[in-house]
Amino acid sequence: MLRLDNQLCFALYSTSLAMTKLYKPLLDRLGLTYPQYLVMLVLWEQDALTVGDLGERLFLDSGTLTPLLKRMEAAGWLTRERAKEDERRVVVALTAEGRKLRRSAISVPQDVSCATQCTLDEVTELRQRLHGLRQRLSLHAVEPSVRGRRKAA
């Protein structure tokens, strides 16, 4: 069992590296890094989200997200403003330049799809299975600490 090629984690990790490597030249043309692209995807779906909402969608904490958003704001793609109703919350919204970037990014998913050489059904099934795996792993990551507290009680 302790062989590298038998490890699910390595298969996921190395595939993730290959995917990120595929995206790099596609995103370089747009001036985006992969994490910035993910932020833009979320904001293109729904503009004007709080940093917390963005973090939930991307599975990132605000400590990771804030420096990323600051660089994106400096590039002119988005704005960050304190919410009027609650100044503890920061709302992230696209600028006209950020919305315009969407048109340039339209070809990225198509280019990636071609590179996978998978059918639409295969991609859909794989994505669903990975989402399910992530959910199960997330639940399991919480359970051991809960079990540990029960034993101590």
Automatic annotation (TrEMBL):
<feature type="domain" description="HTH marR-type">
    <location>
        <begin position="5"/>
        <end position="135"/>
    </location>
</feature>
<keyword id="KW-0963">Cytoplasm</keyword>
<dbReference type="InterPro" id="IPR055166">
    <property type="entry name" value="Transc_reg_Sar_Rot_HTH"/>
</dbReference>
<dbReference type="Pfam" id="PF22381">
    <property type="entry name" value="Staph_reg_Sar_Rot"/>
</dbReference>
<keyword id="KW-0238">DNA-binding</keyword>
<keyword id="KW-0804">Transcription</keyword>
<dbReference type="InterPro" id="IPR036390">
    <property type="entry name" value="WH_DNA-bd_sf"/>
</dbReference>
<dbReference type="InterPro" id="IPR039422">
    <property type="entry name" value="MarR/SlyA-like"/>
</dbReference>
<dbReference type="InterPro" id="IPR000835">
    <property type="entry name" value="HTH_MarR-typ"/>
</dbReference>
<dbReference type="InterPro" id="IPR036388">
    <property type="entry name" value="WH-like_DNA-bd_sf"/>
</dbReference>
<protein>
    <submittedName>
        <fullName>MarR family transcriptional regulator</fullName>
    </submittedName>
</protein>
<keyword id="KW-0805">Transcription regulation</keyword>
